[in-house]
Amino acid sequence: MGCSGCRGRFNSGKVLSKASVFFTMLLIFTYFFYCLSGLCDSAPRTLYRQDNFIDDGFEDESPHSLPSNSIPVSNTFGAKRFPQALIIGVKKGGTRALLEFLRIHPDVRAVGSEPHFFDRFYDKGLDWYRNLMPRTLDGQITMEKTPSYFVTKEAPARICAMNCQTKLIVVVRDPVTRAISDYTQTLSKNPGLPSFQGLALRNSSSSEIDTTWSAVRIGLYAKHMDNWLQHFPHHHFLFVSGERLVSDPAGEMGRVQDFLGLKRVVSDKHFYFNETKGFPCLKKPEGSSRPRCLGKSKGRPHPEIPTEVLQRLRDFYRPYNQLFYQMSGQDFGWD
Fold this sequence. Notes:
It is found in: Endomembrane system; Golgi apparatus membrane. With 335 residues, the protein is α/β, with parallel strands linked by helices.
């Protein structure tokens, strides 16, 4: 009788064990079914801190590395959305610094590298582009920056085809200084490059500026803006001074946050000025071992340019600058 009772309890235990295994397998199957159906994104969302930064040294990264701030790679919360705001230019104006300053904000999720979708990879399609974006939660803004958009003739129409309500940020800098910085960067990669004056002037016996050289052409801000204003109204643009981004980063960031409809989170407390580099750096954030500063390539010494060449360039740019001041509603004081 006792042994019969033991066998009964043993058989009952096996039945319960099989039932538990079956129920567990059913739960796992149901979970995978929901995930494969794309319903996992609708699960309760967890907020993430943005104290840990991607340490890219403020340098341009590979177009396909695409970090997504502090949201873990395995994160499946939120959704991938087209960017509501773009930093569209200009090259060597301060776009990398602006992007990194913005990424401090908890309501900003930005692609770390330059996707170049609207100038180089448009044929890959909008779904490909959206898939490059980091996942965002409700109330967060998706952003990316590609400075070459500003000088790409097709970019405004293509961006408007995605969303004509997109906010556009243009970081500008004295076009003469910008051209020299552009040349200095190229020279560091190609030491055999001709002299700056040899590229800026059509020939040695002429003082005529060669506008076919990209370093000169990019600085014709008014001409490029005319193309953009054919597709977007003026209030969709914010013009950021590259010079003030260095001298008063918190002040310029206040304007940027207002333009994006964000609470002013990024402020003076986030910056300190690096006397050696001559640029502002981000103070060490919580959870980081060191401050975040501009990369080694930033602040590299510029070559000596003959005074007469600089003056010729300033005279050349002056009417374009004046027109751009009218277009932007700001006097950047480059003259």
